[in-house]
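Input (structure):
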């Protein structure tokens, strides 16, 4: 029978890569405070972009999709949702906004998790919001051909309420005692949450919302400015692989959460690096061409249009494409490959 006791991770020898990730994230967190105090206007622009990207990506991972324009209008409350997908997108945005504004007051308890799940579905006609699952569900991956692969069999419905209580109790005890680094503890909690799979629907989205919440509560607020969900979407296969590897032996209490901890730390560190780059990039109000030129200078070696769009997320796809074309025409960049294999290389840096 599955049991939850987070003290067992106190004696685990975490590998060097995880220790290095934690050290680098702590360095970034220290610099984060300087940016938060010096560039409030730039940061507000990043907040707005991150909310849109996070809402879009976390839902797209689950196959919930609408147009970019509709996403922006929904997030800005300019339109009402017109279908089931948009209802769930709107719910996600509301929960994310609530976490941004009130994370200090949202406790790590079953009752609060149920309330967040309720709000995720508040625009939906589905009656599942705020209720634990009443039927067995499975962690599945949708393949490109439309078929699904079962990655993991979660706990049964009757086991779920106690399991969620247990992980919350264990998490809070470890945080109170400062016994285990939050950057290790948070991925362990999220991995357990996903293995429990407590809801009929919305488990993946709830896990990403809870990740943001728990990071905020531990002082890691990068998710407010850079979309962690977008980075997970961009590395979705690695995300599923890490979940699967860490889930081996989970039911028998023999799991090793290292792959998922390592994956999540890589996402957090990448977000911090993007945060610093974007603050520098957005500090000046540059035309699209010069913004893309400056973004290209952050890159070493080969990079793609997607890489530039990640940095210049305030620009439209067309603006980035036109700017890259112009920089190639100037001789500032070299274009290689065709179609999806296209990449760029700087000919020289400014």
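Output (sequence):
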């Amino acid at each position: 029978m599955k049991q939850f006791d987070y003290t067992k991770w106190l004696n685990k020898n975490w590998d060097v890569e995880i220790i290095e990730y934690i050290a680098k994230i702590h360095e970034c967190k220290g610099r984060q405070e300087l940016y938060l105090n010096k560039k409030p206007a730039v940061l507000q622009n990043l907040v707005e972009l991150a909310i849109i990207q996070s809402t879009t990506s976390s839902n797209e991972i689950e196959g919930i999709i609408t147009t970019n324009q509709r996403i922006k209008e929904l997030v800005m409350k300019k339109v009402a949702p017109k279908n089931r997908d948009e209802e769930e997108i709107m719910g996600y945005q509301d929960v994310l906004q609530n976490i941004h504004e009130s994370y200090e007051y949202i406790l790590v308890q079953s009752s609060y998790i149920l309330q967040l799940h309720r709000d995720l579905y508040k625009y939906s006609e589905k009656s599942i919001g705020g209720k634990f699952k009443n039927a067995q569900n499975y962690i599945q991956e949708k393949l490109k051909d439309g078929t699904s692969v079962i990655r993991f069999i979660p706990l049964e419905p009757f086991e779920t309420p106690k399991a969620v209580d247990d992980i919350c109790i264990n998490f809070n005890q470890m945080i109170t005692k400062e016994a285990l680094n939050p950057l290790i503890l948070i991925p362990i909690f999220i991995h357990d949450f996903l293995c429990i799979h407590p809801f009929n629907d919305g488990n993946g989205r709830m896990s990403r919302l809870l990740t943001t919440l728990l990071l905020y509560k531990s002082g890691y607020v990068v998710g407010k400015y850079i979309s962690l969900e977008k980075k997970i979407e961009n590395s979705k296969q690695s995300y599923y692989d890490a979940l699967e590897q860490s889930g081996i032996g989970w039911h028998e209490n023999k799991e090793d959460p290292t792959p998922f901890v390592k994956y999540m730390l890589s996402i957090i560190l990448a977000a911090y690096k993007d945060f610093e780059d974007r603050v520098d990039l957005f500090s000046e109000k540059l035309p699209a061409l010069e913004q893309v030129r400056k973004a290209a200078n952050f890159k070493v070696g080969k990079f793609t249009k997607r890489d530039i769009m990640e940095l210049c997320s305030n620009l439209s796809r067309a603006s980035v494409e036109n700017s890259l074309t112009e920089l190639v025409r100037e001789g500032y960049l070299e274009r290689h490959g065709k179609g999806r294999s296209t990449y760029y290389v700087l000919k020289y840096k400014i």
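Notes: The first strand starts at residue 139 and ends at 142. DSSP finds 14 helices and four strands in the chain.
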